[in-house]
Write a structure and sequence with these properties.
Strand content: 15-25%
Largest sheet: 7 strands, mixed
Number of helices: 19
CATH topology of the largest domain: Aspartate Aminotransferase, domain 2
Strand order of the largest sheet: 4-12-11-10-9-5-8
Number of domains: 3
Radius of gyration: 28 Å
Bound molecules: pyridoxal-5'-phosphate
Distance between the termini: 42 Å
Low-confidence stretches: none
Shape: globular
Helix content: 40-55%
Structural class: alpha/beta
């Protein structure tokens, strides 16, 4: 090691010295002694690592004095007070964006969360009888009314619902599933892996593109636990394809006394075709075909909080409720409160797309999207922020969240160009705004997809654009 580095290492600030400086600045009002101490040690250790690692010419640039170290420690502690999970504006046009929190909640759901969580609640208390109750009971009647199911149960998310249902029906038994439905949803959710974890044995049948009823029939044996159908949410097999229809599959299951389980993924409660989207069988349709148990998400097409909803025949749902694994996957009170309010909007199905933002974004007529785009452009033009030009053009949005993968939803984007700031820098700057704006980049301009931007978010867009021009 050269002398210069040795000297710098010897001169590293002492921890006590840094703490002394911080105490003078009143650090103990911001963090405990343990936090201050560990942060000081980290900062000094990092400095030591840098002295050893940087190139010779960078050495003089290192600030190795106690005052700089104290400033660093203070900045790190101050940063702990900044919320990292924050609201943002989704201008990507991906409506159920899994990375951006999927479905925004409706105002009623938000109010219910505050109301229920502020104090105590009857989460597991039966007010009629004055004794212990079940948390699912608050929403199961609503779910049954909306789907025609005999009973319902809710867990943390649909991945949990699938795991729990498989474990209940096919622990150490075979689950028969078509090869074309062995899908990966993303984020580590692969059907074969979930099966392994549920302790069920995968029995693949058919081929990637064609699976017939006879393939299922041949696979049935003494160790069959369940026949599983999986909605191929995020992809489609097209061309020379065949899959077994539900009614004959159900008949096959009944004949052999084997339950049929359909993992619907998105699980739609209303007829999307009535709103100009492609037809998806509703949960009610699927149950009406005689399927024993169906699972779907709360925060995909349903437009509510993250949850996994299990519906079906009451004997099977009763078995699932009793599975000890259920306790580990149970839904919390915030989610339950939000789900109840969300589901109520479906009692009059024509209301749901007006009340639930994600459904509205999916079904809103293009002319309304265009109107909003014009409003935004007019508002932005009035701000007179220099160097910006705005235009409006047609484009395509996507449902996201593995829902309706082949649906190209027509949309309107506002294109924004800055005379001096390249589009990639603009994208990054908007992402760093106080309320971040997440956009698409298209060569030399950025695109704000108006299908996912609401009018009450225009102010955030304006503020973020001002910040770009200000520095
Ligand atoms: C999305 C999806 C899941 C997982 O649901 P989460 O709510 O994300 O846990 C499982 N199965 C299918 C078919 C899906 O589309």
């Amino acid at each position: 090691m050269d002398d210069k580095r040795k000297e710098l290492l010897k001169g590293l600030p002492k921890i006590d010295e840094v703490i002394g400086l911080l105490e003078k600045k009143g650090i103990d009002a911001k963090a405990s002694r343990e936090i201050v101490l560990t942060t000081c040690r980290d900062v000094v250790q990092k400095l030591r690592d840098s002295i050893l690692a940087v190139q010779d010419k960078q050495l003089p640039a290192l600030s190795t004095d106690a005052a700089s170290a104290a400033r660093n420690v203070e900045a790190i502690i101050d940063d702990l007070y900044h919320y990292k999970l924050k609201r943002l504006v989704n201008a990507t046009g991906v409506i159920l964006h899994t990375n951006l929190g999927r479905a925004p909640l409706c105002p009623e759901a938000l109010n219910r969360i505050i109301d229920v969580a502020r104090g105590y609640s009857n989460l597991e208390f039966d007010l009629e009888r004055g004794e212990r109750g079940l948390r699912y009971d608050h929403v199961s009647r609503l779910i049954c009314a909306l789907t025609g199911a005999e009973d319902a149960l809710i867990v943390n998310n649909n991945a949990a619902a699938v795991l729990l249902t498989l474990n209940t029906l096919a622990d150490r038994k075979e689950a028969i599933v078509s090869r074309g439905e062995l899908i990966e949803i993303g984020g580590e959710f692969r059907i074969p892996d979930v099966m392994t974890k549920s302790n069920s044995i995968l029995r693949e049948v058919g081929t990637t593109n064609r699976t017939r009823l006879a393939d299922y029939e041949k696979a049935i044996g003494p160790n069959t636990g369940v026949i599983l159908k999986v909605h191929t949410s995020n992809y489609r097999i097209v061309g020379f394809t065949e899959e077994a229809e539900l009614p004959p599959l159900v008949a096959l299951g009944k004949h052999h006394g084997i339950p049929v389980f359909d993992d619907l993924g998105s699980g739609c409660l209303i007829d999307l075709a009535a709103h100009g989207l492609q037809h998806e069988p509703t949960v009610r349709d699927v149950l009406a075909s005689g399927v024993d148990v169906v699972t779907f998400s709360g925060d995909k097409l349903l437009g509510g909080p993250q949850a996994g909803i299990i519906v079906g025949n009451k004997d099977i749902v009763a078995r699932i409720k009793k599975n000890p694994l259920n306790r580990a996957l149970r839904i919390d009170k915030f989610t339950l409160a939000a789900l109840e309010a969300t589901l109520m909007h479906y009692l009059t199905p024509e209301d749901a797309p007006r009340k639930l933002r994600s459904l509205k974004a999916l079904t809103e007529p293009l002319r309304d999207v265009k109107k909003r785009a014009r409003k935004l452009i007019n508002k932005l033009k009035r701000t007179n922020i220099p160097d910006l030009t705005f235009e409006l053009r047609e484009d395509v949005a996507a449902a996201g969240g593995g829902s309706l993968p082949t649906e190209n939803i027509p949309t309107i984007v506002v294109t924004i160009k800055h005379a001096k700031v390249p589009s990639s820098r603009m994208e990054a700057k908007l992402r760093h705004a106080a309320v971040p704006i997440i956009v698409r980049v298209d060569e030399d301009q950025i695109l704000l997809d108006m299908r996912t931007v609401a009018e009450d978010e225009f102010g955030f867009v304006e503020d973020a654009l001002r910040q770009i021009s200000a520095n």
